[in-house]
Write a structure and sequence with these properties.
Length: 130
């Protein structure tokens, strides 16, 4: 059980290997001019799903997106000041088994940046090669 915390990827790989999934979408009810019948192929399934999803979403009018009125900020957030040491300390605590964030940079790369002393966004291309 302690291995799960050390290497969760191995655990989830095992779970995935033991999980039974359906490789295809089951037949769907299709309404046509001659009545209701089951779909016969993937193209018909895709058309049924596309028709459904287009029916439940709002059609937005063309043109400019309305702007929100300006608001008065009563309690502005204070400026956040971090030292290089604080950033390196936090980066070293990252779990390399976790997925990357919304910027797509892996935790392994960020952790390696802390080990090299590079912790700023301008240093990122030097470490990743991008």
């Amino acid at each position: 059980m302690a291995q799960i915390k050390i290497n969760p990827k191995k655990f989830w790989a095992y779970v995935k290997s033991q999980t039974k999934t359906r490789p295809t979408i089951p037949d769907l009810e299709m309404v046509s001019t001659s009545g209701t019948r089951k779909t016969r192929n993937d193209t018909e399934k895709a058309n049924v799903l596309a028709e459904y999803f287009t029916s439940v979403f709002t059609q937005e009018p063309d043109g400019e997106i309305p702007r929100l009125p300006n608001r008065i900020i009563r309690n502005p957030m204070e400026k956040i000041i971090l030292t290089e040491e604080e950033i390196q300390k936090k980066l070293k605590l990252l779990n390399p088994a976790k997925s990357s964030g919304p910027d797509g940079v892996s935790t392994t790369i960020l952790k390696e940046m802390a080990d090299t002393g590079r912790t700023t966004k301008t240093d990122l291309p030097k470490v990743t090669g991008h």
